Amino acid sequence: MSAPSLKAVTEAVDGPLMMRHMRLFNRYTKVAGTPTELESLRYCEGEMKSYGFTTEIILHDAYISIPVKGEVILDGRALRAITHSFSRPSPAAGLMAEVVDLGPGTAADFARQDVTGKLVLIDGIANPAAALRASQAGAAGQIHVSPHEHLHEMCVSPVWGSPTHETVDRLPKTVIVQIPFDEGQALRRRRQEDPSLQVTLHAEVDTGWRKTPILVADLMTGPKAQEQPYIFYTGHHDTWYYGVMDNGGANATMMEVSRIAALHRSAWQRGLRVVFWSGHSQGRYSSSSWYSDKNWEDIDARALVHVNVDSTGGLGNTVVGDTSCAAELRPLAAEAVMAYSGQTFNNRRQSRAGDQSFWGIGVPGIFQNMSEQPASPDAETNASASVFGGGNRVGHGTGWWWHNPADTLDKIDEAILVRDTKIYMHAVWRLLTDRILPLDYAEHARYLAATLKELQDAAGPRFDLSLLLSRAARLEALASQLNALSQTADEGSAETINATLKAVSRALVPVDYTEKDRFTQDPALAVGAYPGLQPIRQFATLDPDSDAAKFLHVGMMRTHNRTATALAEAIRALEACLHTLGATPR
């Protein structure tokens, strides 16, 4: 039986079937570690079993923080407020202190005044970076002002996953609340009238170790299924409240792509592992981090690409060109996005979010949030974009209902859910069935070269990146040569090429996305491309003879060596592959 066409599998996406899943998700709140989360997950398990997957629900310990109640008392009046996951609880009588207005709450805002023992008033949704700055500055509490009338639940821990003995001290040390825009403006006016104004914060937070579930669904083919390489296809199942869009839509997309793909498993070149995470919303990616630690060697040996699914099908979320991926997966992402939306993918780099716990191992990723609201002067559409912004974004978040009780079934548009799912179906199907993995390391080399040139321009003669630029050029030449040979490769050559592409990913993904070693999770904070090299920009601001400049030079030499070594490993792998294929590396 011949393999179905790409068009056939994408046209098989069944909107009414996915809406049946959505109605089920609309019945359960799914906070991490709760019985209703597990009950909803068992529904997903039953569906995946019916498609032919082998399933397992794993219960593991995770450090989870569930906000219970937040309150701000101003002049005897309680403002509408919530607290956040990993806020410190307030004393029983509340936390009273003077308010300091920091506006956006940037590092420069914190540096310009002493906030020790104060409550800092910050514009925008609470986030890990602000929580870390406030803790380091000695603030007693944070009051975040929503950009509109709606309040959005947030996990503010800067620690990725459950804390270790080395990272637990980085958890927030402040009481953290959020108030709506109008209440924030009223508070700001009162402070202008009385610069020594004091308010009282109340925060109740349930933080501790809980058993949380992970659903793993495997479908492997061939005689050595336990060793077969696989595509890693994941999304979180835990939610804030009912979370029908975030992340019920994604779970429906995961199941539908799995259902269709499983019908045609004889066409697969590799296996499929589908994982539904907990601990995303209240544990700062605790499940995916734990799974990475627990299954490190298996992932290193077998995982080829990580496809992440988040918040598909949202009402009015017409922008899809703003999704993200690793540079080597840009051609695949652009193809899939254009095919079902007519939009041009803007090449946005993946952010440090979305259960991307596998970069240190070296697994490249494609997609996170798929669809977003269009640009609008109305601030109520851009809450999530304000937290996970960066790059050349055109989307403005996933709707005002994001991370609040209004994320219910009425916020799902079946046609948009089908469109988003077709994009995922396209990408996953090609990853499963292409004889040679659609990983383009010539594109990665061009992206790296552009990054290095920008950094070299910023640093000037203060730091020499010529070796890295030379190796990026060599990487592009070799990867382009391999891309050309891949067009006519036979079965034996395809196996060699795929092994090489995996080896190159193991060398380059860690330096592209992490600063630590391959076994350690970086903080849950935004980073730029090749993050270890980004501090090079600081040279232009420092006195060349200062201690700060010399300390920076020591650190940058080490990061330079790490990057140079990774490039050398990738180049050797490509050269060896070309020799094996009978070609002379050019």
For the residues shown, what is the average pLDDT?
95
Query: Mind telling me the C-alpha Rg?
Result: 24 Å
Please tell me what the overall shape is.
globular
**Oligomerization status of the protein chains:** single chain
Low-confidence spans: 386-394
| Number of H/I helices | 16
Largest sheet, if any?
12 strands, mixed
Fraction of residues in helix: 25-40%
DSSP summary, beta strand count: 12
Can you write the helix and strand succession as a string? HHHEEEEHEHEEHEEHEHHEHEHHHHHH
From the N-terminal CA to the C-terminal CA, the straight-line distance is: 41 Å
Supply the helix-strand structural class: alpha/beta
Strand content: 15-25%
List the helices and strands and how they pair.
Elements: H1 6-11, H2 15-25, H3 35-50, E1 54-74, E2 77-79, E3 82-83, E4 95-101, H4 107-111, E5 119-123, H5 128-137, E6 141-145, E7 175-179, H6 181-193, E8 198-219, E9 230-236, H7 244-263, E10 271-277, H8 286-294, H9 296-302, E11 303-308, H10 330-341, E12 365-366, H11 383-387, H12 414-433, H13 441-459, H14 466-486, H15 491-513, H16 547-580
Parallel strand pairs: 4-5, 5-6, 6-7, 9-10, 9-11, 11-12
Antiparallel strand pairs: 1-2, 1-8, 3-7, 4-8, 8-10
Helix pairs in contact: 2-7, 2-12, 7-12, 10-12, 13-14, 14-16, 15-16
List the main descriptive attributes of the protein structure presented here.
single chain, 586 residues, alpha/beta, 12 strands, 39% helix, globular
Polypeptide structure, described:
This protein is an alpha/beta fold and 586 residues long. Helix content is 39%, strand content 16%. It has helices spanning 6-11, 15-25, 35-50, 107-111, 128-137, 181-193, 244-263, 286-294, 296-302, 330-341, 383-387, 414-433, 441-459, 466-486, 491-513, 547-580; strands at 54-74, 77-79, 82-83, 95-101, 119-123, 141-145, 175-179, 198-219, 230-236, 271-277, 303-308, 365-366. The radius of gyration is 24 Å and the shape is globular. The model is unreliable at 386-394 (pLDDT under 50).
